[in-house]
Amino acid sequence: MSMQENSSISKATVDRLPRYYRCLRLLADEGVEITSSEEIGRRTSVNPEQIRKDLAVFGQFGKKGVGYYVAELKENIGGILGLDQRFNIAIVGMGHLGVALANYQGITRLGFRIAALFDVNPVVIGTRLGERRVEDIAYLPEIVAERGVQIGVIAVPAAHAQEVADRLVGAGIRGIWNFAPVKLAVPENIPLISEDLSVGLSSLSYSLTHIAFEDEELSEKNNIE
User: Fold this and answer.
1) Pair type for strands 68-69 and 34-35
2) Which helix (H) or strand (E) holds 34?
3) Mean pLDDT of the chain
4) Residue 65, SS3?
5) Where does the CoA-binding domain lie (predicted)?
6) How many domains does the chain fold into?
7) Which partner from 77, 163, 195, 206 sits 20 to 30 angstroms from 224, CA to CA?
C-alpha cells in the first residue's frame, strides 16, 4: 500500500513509522527475534494501542499470542517507508554540516546512497570525501540526471538556499531535505522536509530555563514554609 493509494493515512502515523523501524533495527542488532507492541512502546514512548492501530492501517502484522517477528516487521515497515527503493541522494554545500551529513553512516544504513556532493567554492571542489569527489554545482543538472538522484539535501547558508532549491527542482529532483534556516518555495509535487536545528535547541533552552525557574520557585516556597 502506498501513500497515494490511501491518502487518509494521517501524517502522525507516518511520522511514527520511522521510530518503529529504528526500534526494530536495534532489536534485530540485539538478536531479539520476537517482540510485542508493549516492548516497542516502551522503547519509543508510544502507547502500545496506538502502535497496533498504526500498523493495522497497513495490514495484518504479528501473530496472536506470539507477537511480532522482528525481522519480518522491520522488512514490512521498511517497505512501507520505501527504504527498499535505495534512493540516491545529492548533498549541496560542503561546510561543516554538509561534511557531517556526508559522513553520517545512518544515511547509508537506512539504504540511501550518497551519489553526489556539490559546492561552489573552488577550494573545496575536487577534494575527496570518502568515495566521492566534491563537484561543481554548475554541473548539477547533468550529474543528477546521469546518476538518477532523487533526493537533494540543502546544507548551504540561508541566503543561497532558495537558489539551490530552484536548481534541484529544475534538475528533476523528486524530494528535498532542507537544513537551511529558511522557508523554501517549491512546487506542490515536491515533498520538502525542513530541519531547523535552532528550533530544537531553542525548545531545549526553553525547557531548561523553565525547569530551573520551577526549581527556584519550589526552593523559595520550601524556605518560606
Assistant:
1) antiparallel
2) strand 34-35
3) 90
4) coil
5) 82-183
6) 2
7) 206
The answer to whether residue 25 sits within a structural domain is: yes
The reply to whether 96 sits in an annotated binding site is yes
Q: Specify the higher pLDDT residue, 213 or 46.
A: 46
On the question of pLDDT at 120 being above 50, the answer is: yes
User: Which residues, in sequence order, are CB contacts of 85 under 8 Å at separation 6+?
Assistant: 111
Which domain covers residue 75, as residue numbers?
11-81
- 3 marked ligand binding residue: no
**Res. 63 pLDDT band, cuts 50 70 90:** confident
Contacts of 120 (CB under 8 A, 6+ apart): 136, 137
Q: What is the CATH number of the domain that holds 74?
A: 1.10.10.10
Same domain, 50 and 122: no
Query: 115 and 47, same structural domain?
Result: no
- Residue among 202, 175, 196 at smallest CA distance from 187: 175
Cβ distance 149 to 115 under 8 Å? yes
Q: Is 152 annotated in some ligand binding site?
A: no
Does 126 carry a binding-site annotation?
no
Is pTM beyond 0.85? Reply is: no
Same domain, 57 and 113: no
Task: Indicate whether 223 belongs to any domain.
Answer: no
The verdict on whether residue 95 carries a ligand-binding annotation is yes
Q: CATH number, domain at 160? A: 3.40.50.720
Q: Is 222 within the bounds of a domain?
A: no
Whether residue 5 is predicted with pLDDT greater than 60 in this model: the reply is: no
Residue 130 confidence (pLDDT): 86
> Can you say how many angstroms the Cα of residue 137 is from the centroid of all Cα atoms in its chain?
24
The answer to whether 97 is annotated as binding is yes
Contact between 148 and 127 (Cβ < 8 Å): no
